[in-house]
Amino acid sequence: MTKSILVTGGTKGIGRAIIDRFGEEGFDVFTCSRHGKDLEKLENEFTTKFPGQKIMASEADLSKKEEVQRFAEEVKRFAIPDVLVNNTGIFLPGSIHSEPDGNFEMMMHTNLFSAYYLTRAFTSEMIERKAGHLFSIGSIAGLTAYSNGGSYAISKWAMLGFTKCLRQELKDYNIKVTSILPGATYTASWEGVELPIERFMKVEDIATAIWSAYNLSPYSVVEEIVIRPQLGDL
């Protein structure tokens, strides 16, 4: 039976790299984005590259609970994914004491609440079949405080705690849970900065790390992966 992966925010950056990596291994794909044109482009490229595999790409704003639940129900019409990657996120720089009003709510809803509600939508079925692997795309901002991190850092600290709780809750059901904590990775968020591209990690490296963690035997789990640029944090 063909295995499947659900990756939120899959049209660009880390999400897209994960889709490509698992697509190379024969996985069907479920993904979403707020941008319909990006989804259409992804579908066309995926089906051209992997003609024997399925992709379901849905337009959804996962900062809204009702959109998360609608997307989950769409996926369930086809399958319960073998792998779930909570990747959707947004970064708005600022300090807690002075960032614009609304930054906190936007980043908590997008970066944390989306993962909470989407994970809840599938865990019952994963528990019943006693199989599955959940990945949370966090950040080193969830490990180390830094200037201008503001509410983004708060959301990523919370994401790490959320994932640690899941690990404890689901381990007895043969469900694996892994936190991915990357440093500066070259995505659209960094475009235009005056730094050489070699100073950043590649999105493909994050995807490879996830694939490697997924491929351990049933007797082992990677709980956390911290990945930093070779020359250190920016």
From TrEMBL:
Name the PROSITE patterns on file: ADH_SHORT
Q: Which PANTHER family match?
A: ALCOHOL DEHYDROGENASE
Q: Which residues are in coiled coils?
A: none
A molecular-function term among this protein's GO annotations: oxidoreductase activity
Keywords, in A-Z order: Oxidoreductase
Spell out the protein name for this chain: Short-subunit dehydrogenase
Protein family (similarity comment): Belongs to the short-chain dehydrogenases/reductases (SDR) family.
Q: Does the keyword Oxidoreductase apply?
A: yes
